[in-house]
Amino acid sequence: MFSRNKDIFVRSSYWGTWSRVLLRMGGNFRYQLEVDVTPVNPLFNDSWRNTKNIRIRKHCTVHGPKDIYTHDLPDDVVEQMKEHVSQETIDVIIHSDLYNLIDWERFDDAYNAGGGGVHLLDCIKTITPIFRLGYVNNQGGDILYCGVDSFINKLKEDFGKEINIEEYLVTGWIEIQSQGTVCIYITRDKETEVSTTHFIVKDGNTQHYVNGFMVKFPSDWYYEIKGLVDQLLGEYIDKLEIRGEVESYIDQAKLVLEYDMLRRLV
Fold first, then answer.
1. Could you tell me the CA-to-CA distances from 207 to 3, 178, 202, 231, 236 in Å, in that order?
2. Within its chain, how far is the Cα of 62 from the centroid?
3. Phi and psi angles of residue 164, each rounded to the nearest 5 degrees, phi first
4. Each residue of 179-222: pLDDT tens digit?
5. Does residue 148 sit within a domain?
6. Among 26, 55, 115, 183, which has the highest number of CB atoms less than 10 A from its own CB?
7. Are residues 55 and 74 in the same domain?
8. In this structure, is residue 3 part of a structural domain?
9. What is the C-alpha to C-alpha distance for residues 84 and 92, in angstroms, rounded to an integer?
């Protein structure tokens, strides 16, 4: 299995464990950052406790000549994980953009205090949901970051859209110009945790709306959404000259979605 985050995996010849590498040792980096994939004694259920907790480790010793580095985590390792770890946790360990979700000052404090790795919950960043309103007209432009209630009111007033009572709003982005308006927002079902990405384009008095469901894990959404944005909004994004801003928002929204999921998981 390949990491959707394009990270590599390593098998320690000394410990006999598999880890995912978040930061490779070398050059100015005198240590290697890893997240546990398998424990030292995988045959014992108790040994998987730290793996379930998503432990981030710092290795300061150079790798051995018999260590194995690969982008393709062997299938038997994945099957072994499934016997002890939930699918949601496996997705985080293998695919989540953990490096960008970690507060490294908090990590260093926790690592120096205890050693032996740091529970993700003890070093995760606090990532604030993004609700952005961008305005451009003949007099100039402005970008406002508002709260969730203000964004919900904007959706209702400008687009006639309301958030379903079974869902909550995760993040949203609006660009309003004299040439047209583009809106992207994401909702998540409170019970199933399935998310929906909503797209709105306004051109004069004409409004177009489409949406797409996503599976639970944000990495799947991230790669699907890039193609959808270009397919559904490409013409308007280029017309409004906001392609860079939209792509930057998608990158940020992925972290918001992952943080929202991890906060419930860990």
1. 38, 14, 4, 17, 12
2. 30
3. -60, 140
4. 888 899 999 888 887 888 899 988 888 898 988 777 656 666 77
5. yes
6. 183
7. yes
8. no
9. 15
